[in-house]
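Input structure tokens:
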């Protein structure tokens, strides 16, 4: 009976520490953040306007392909990654999948004012300008037409790796995705992206382990929530695309997660059985002593 009382005291103070002290400290050090907003209500988006893809094709081709490639429509990059990285600071994205990856309202707002939509206006002050010019001088219908065109040429399905590559690989490497061939290195050369961002963006191979899944969703959706003043832009991914990006990070950085979680219940059952036998053995020995 004495051992049970000691155990009860230990359990009580352990629970007080865990449920009373630790959550309070966690709350103070990491205050809760607003949930990700995949509707991007704050942007100057389409406002319900429907676009005409055919009209948008001419607008995109006349305004965008001087810097952006659209390989699915036979518009290859005009410069290699090293040249475009040196010219713009970051390699401009291929627009083939942008209509699928990005929220339509965000995409419209980004075309109008990239720095404002991406929440990186603080980077472009005192004469500094975003490498992509504003198109807020265009008519709202023209912006809607461009978005409609980008959506019309977007692939119906993408693998998790393809979603990550198109959404993240211009700035971030994920070297564990292909250790031998090095194809998952950032497209923008290190010296260019470091100058553009202010520091070298981290390799994301193990970020699924060093950050929680919920943190990654919150951060990708709006980096300013967790790191005010960061140079990382709000990417504008749809929830489905963001899920694919985080899933790929998990496939690369925590491929044994399912196997590890499946082992957990089996190990707990083993501990319970072992505890029962240990208790029975202890009881038998103390019975002989008494």
């Amino acid at each position: 009976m004495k051992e049970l009382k000691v155990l009860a005291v230990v359990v009580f103070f352990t629970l007080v520490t865990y449920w009373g002290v630790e959550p309070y400290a966690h709350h103070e050090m990491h205050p809760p953040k607003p949930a990700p907003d995949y509707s991007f209500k704050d942007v100057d988006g389409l406002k319900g306007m429907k676009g005409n893809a055919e009209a948008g094709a001419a607008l995109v081709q006349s305004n965008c392909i001087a810097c952006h490639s659209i390989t699915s429509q036979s518009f290859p990059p005009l410069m290699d990654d090293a040249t475009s990285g040196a010219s713009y600071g970051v390699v401009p994205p291929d627009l083939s999948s942008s209509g699928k990856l990005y929220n339509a309202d965000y995409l419209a707002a980004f075309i109008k004012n990239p720095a404002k939509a991406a929440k990186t206006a603080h980077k472009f002050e005192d004469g500094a300008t975003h490498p992509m010019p504003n198109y807020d001088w265009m008519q709202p219908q023209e912006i809607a037409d461009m978005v409609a065109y980008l959506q019309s040429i977007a692939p119906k399905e993408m693998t998790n790796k393809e979603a990550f590559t198109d959404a993240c690989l211009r700035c971030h490497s994920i070297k564990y995705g292909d250790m031998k061939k090095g194809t998952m290195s950032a497209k923008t050369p290190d010296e260019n992206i470091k100058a553009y961002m202010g520091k070298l963006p981290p390799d994301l191979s193990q970020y699924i382990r060093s950050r929680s899944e919920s943190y990654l969703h919150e951060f990708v959706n709006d980096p300013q929530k967790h790191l005010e003043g960061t140079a990382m832009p709000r990417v504008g991914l749809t929830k489905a695309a963001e899920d694919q990006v985080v899933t790929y990070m998990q496939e690369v950085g925590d491929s044994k997660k399912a196997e590890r979680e499946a082992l957990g219940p089996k190990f707990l059952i083993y501990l319970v059985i072992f505890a029962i036998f240990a208790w029975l053995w202890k009881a038998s020995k103390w019975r002989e002593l008494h």
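The two ends are 14 Å apart (CA to CA). Residues 1-32 form one domain.
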